[in-house]
Design brief:
The structure holds 2 protein chains of 2 kinds.
Chain A: E1 5-7, E2 10-14, E3 19-24, E4 29-37, E5 44-49, E6 55-58, E7 61-65, E8 71-76, E9 85-93, E10 99-101, E11 105-110
Chain B: E1 5-7, E2 10-13, E3 19-24, E4 31-37, E5 44-50, E6 53-57, E7 64-68, E8 74-78, E9 87-94, E10 103-104, E11 108-112
Parallel strand pairs in B: 2-11
Antiparallel strand pairs in B: 1-3, 3-8, 4-5, 4-9, 5-6, 7-8, 9-10, 9-11
The chains are: A mainly beta, B mainly beta.
Chain lengths: 111, 113
Amino acid sequence: TQLLEQSPQFLSIQEGENLTVYCNSSSVFSSLQWYRQEPGEGPVLLVTVVTGGEVKKLKRLTFQFGDARKDSSLHITAAQTGDTGLYLCAGARTGTYKYIFGTGTRLKVLA
Amino acid sequence: EAGVTQSPTHLIKTRGQQATLRCSPISGHTSVYWYQQALGLGLQFLLWYDEGEERNRGNFPPRFSGRQFPNYSSELNVNALELEDSALYLCASSVDFGSYEQYFGPGTRLTVT
């Protein structure tokens, strides 16, 4: 059973377009992290969201944690080719110390 | 500040052999995590060490084992290698037991022939 489902699984867009990636669960998480991974490298931590309803902005990236802390979204404005990569959400369910990664969204931004 | 380091970068073994992978966390970090990422797939949690103790283990057979040393570096051992063990093995560290923000190393690419 995959506790963190991401959608879409694959996304190919043109440079300059906007996109949103979703991370959903039926479980409550104490916090969620978003990472970006490039081929053959380790994931790089982008952000942590902790409070329900929290919105964090990182330049063109906007991260939101759902009010019930069961889901999160990542919105990229005016995508650039450098945004290409595998985006992963991850977290530990409240009351556990089992850290899990989402299924991933593979983004390709075309010039 | 140096990031998480892993060695070796690449490792080629034959079926049935043993592999040892090493990880040095960021200075000051006490928790170390190991993940397996098969080609094109997601990260599968293997092991979590904190302060020298194994805190949690993923759904992997006992031939996957490891340890954490007093200086917080860690070692992952895979015995009786199988072809399907071929993958990128990633190590991550976090500040302590309660922090979920993980910082990853570049990984060790293990190939079993």
